[in-house]
């Protein structure tokens, strides 16, 4: 039995084109033009004929875009704290937290890649590895996890190497927060505020004491108290991302060596012991 269709009797799930919707983009900028979608959507070039390699590429490309945005926001947060604009700093730090949560969720999609299917194209990756991620390294440096040795991985790209080197030698988000403590009259050792910022940060008693005062007098130092909690939010989200990354890698390759030459899962586990803001966690023991 046929089902006649009458143009003057549209089905209930039909949505007509509104007359004012623009359709001619010969001389006008379209959505795709604005977002450079032609370049973005043509940037996936699998090196094998395996179906799941497209998943692997897109997950990592999307992650790099989120990392770029997180770096953009952290730059702003640092400038906000330097200028005393804590309200806007809180806004962008909260955004970074949500970006990290989004990144964490993406590992769940990648975990649908089975070990057998990954091995079908893993050799095609050569020595390329997430360890070489410029965006990830930038986030770590901006948050305060400095390590000069890690610049070696980026020597083949002079522009990237220079930007990371610049970030390495400048105060991190946390170090700008410590300057804010000093500006509010809280005693911070000069060796903390005036040091070689390219070196890893080490916990300091004067910093711990200052944060304890802030937490014990939250009404008086509310903007510093709120800043501390925002920083904890970032570390919490970052560590969840690190853990999910490690666990996803373990699920897919077990204890194999990483493509970039690291020990793989064991190397990723070590990152879980690194805190960006050590005093902010230690103070909880002393309250």
TrEMBL record:
Its cofactor is heme. It is an enzyme of class 1 (oxidoreductase). Pfam families: Trp_dioxygenase (PF03301). Pathway: Amino-acid degradation; L-tryptophan degradation via kynurenine pathway; L-kynurenine from L-tryptophan: step 1/2. One of its GO terms (biological process) is L-tryptophan catabolic process to kynurenine. Heme binds at residue 245. Substrate binds at residues 56-60, 118, 122, 259. It catalyses: L-tryptophan + O2 = N-formyl-L-kynurenine. GO terms for molecular function: heme binding; L-tryptophan 2,3-dioxygenase activity; metal ion binding. InterPro entries: Trp/Indoleamine_2_3_dOase-like (IPR037217), Trp_2-3-dOase_bac (IPR017485), Trp_2_3_dOase (IPR004981). Binds 1 heme group per subunit. Homotetramer. PANTHER family: TRYPTOPHAN 2,3-DIOXYGENASE. Belongs to the tryptophan 2,3-dioxygenase family. Heme-dependent dioxygenase that catalyzes the oxidative cleavage of the L-tryptophan (L-Trp) pyrrole ring and converts L-tryptophan to N-formyl-L-kynurenine. Catalyzes the oxidative cleavage of the indole moiety. This is Tryptophan 2,3-dioxygenase.
